Amino acid sequence: MIDHAAAAGDLFGETGPNAPKAAGQRTGEGSVPFSLLKKIRGKSQAIRAIQFLGLLCVPEGKKAGKPLKLADFQRKFVKGALAKKVMVGVLSIGRGNAKTALSAGLALAELVGALEEQPQPKREIILAARNRDQARTAFNFLLGYIQGLPDADQGQFIVRRGSKLEVEFAGNGGGLARVIAADGKSILGGAPTLAIMDERAAWEREKGDNLENAILSGLGKRDGRALIISTSAPDDANTFSRWLDDPPPGTYVQEHRPPFGLPADDLESLLIANPGAKEGIGAAPEWLVSQAQRAIARGGSALSSFRNLNRNERVSTEDRSVLVTVDEWMSAEVSPDDLPEREGPCILGVDLGGSRSMSAAAFYWPETGRLEALGTFPATPSLADRGASDGVSDRYCQMQERGELSVLGEATVPPGPWLAQIVQHLDGITPDCIVGDRFRHAEFTEAMQAAGLARVPFIWRGFGWKDGSEDIERFRRGLFDGEVKVAPSMLLRFAFSDAITLVDPAGNHKLAKARSLGRIDAAAATVLAVAQGARMKAAPARKARALWL
């Protein structure tokens, strides 16, 4: 193997006994045969890839130097991603399950022309990541596999480590593998036969999408394939999440994500996200459980990061300005059978939506801590179309099936009929007060009159720094003290996952969206209702006045 910097000025490396001696050799004419190709007998690309990978040696780790043995989930992905009529293979799995090592092995198979009996000449392989340092990981795995080959085979590779990270193969028609960073220029004009997009969920949105589009458009020139691999993205709007949730035709998807809402140290679900742990790949099950317990003890960003990276859950790792973390909110969820009764005064928190947006209501009983929430969208566009445009797939349709989301009106939700419909949810209970946004004063007044609630006291609150900071603090205190109990609600889970707080220099908080398409209306209504409940509980009880006769 010849290793040198491209900056030295020699495009094909220094001459040597195993270096290509003529241009004809670089297209496969008279070049030294690659010995491993003689041992591959498969017909399909998937079978040939599995056979080729079995001839390699593990390049690093506790099994370094031993023959590479594919785990069941790896074999499944190779068969699916390299099946006929599949152009893109997508793999989502927890950190440390050798997904980068697997894709690097497939890159080497394509580089030497092992995937087809009659491979294309001058094959081009792209190793793309968010930046050069991340892409170097796959590049180093590729070099590690090459260094484990027989000496005669190593001599057909030229490695460049200068301004460009590249590996060139001289035999079997020739090939070139190169590293591309998503934070640099695009590769318009390229024609890759295989592209690997590593840790796609971590790419910057605009630059990453531009690079992905350039790669995919280039694949069509030579019937190439793309492998998109990553741990789970932090939200549904991420491009990697959309590959998983709404894959286009010709896409194979393999996602190892456990059900939402389980304890972080639940072993069975940990093994769903980390299938390699059972087969000696990556972390052992005992280590995963111990790290989960450590993350639970530390809480905050440590727990969010563990869920996202090790449990492969779609959980935001932002912790500095989130309203509450996923685990903090889930501490309030109880089974429907354990939900407290509707006893005592009821507070109705309302976030009245504008045109095309959601209107949400939260019902809170301070004496028992019971919380319920409902949301409503206008009928146009449909919930399915709205979910697609918001980047959340069929989430809104699922909420409607669960009875948490309804449809009312055409282009907008009419405030009066909507408020009347919401109050019907209480089955005859009249709320003691309604809490809403001061900015929508006129609309609320008209809506309450239309709904027959003109006699119910209305408490005006602002969403700015003054009222907002107080309401957020009272809500958080009530949640952390166990004074909020709610049945599992998809509407509330995703509302709080999109809710962050903006902080001014004095440390005051106000509610905001984590992303422009986020829907935090139910979270806003909940904050209003719970905060008002805390004020009512803290208010001193009025003593009866003595009557003088």
Automatic annotation (TrEMBL):
InterPro entries: P-loop_NTPase, TerL_ATPase, TerL_nuclease, Terminase_largesu-like. It comes from the Bacteria. GO terms for molecular function: endonuclease activity. It holds the Pfam family TerL_ATPase. Gene3D superfamilies: P-loop containing nucleotide triphosphate hydrolases (3.40.50.300). Residues 87-233 form the Terminase large subunit-like ATPase domain. Residues 302-532 form the Terminase large subunit-like endonuclease domain. This is Terminase.
